[in-house]
Amino acid sequence: MPIAFELRPAEKADLAFCWPIYRDAVQPLTANWKEADHQRVVEKAVGHAGTSILRSDNANKGWVEVSENGGSVELRQLFIAAEARNKGLGTSFLNWMKERADRKRKDLLVELPANSPARALCERLGFKAVKTAGDKVTMRY
Question: Is 3.80.10.10 the CATH classification of the domain at 6-140?
Answer without folding.
Answer: no
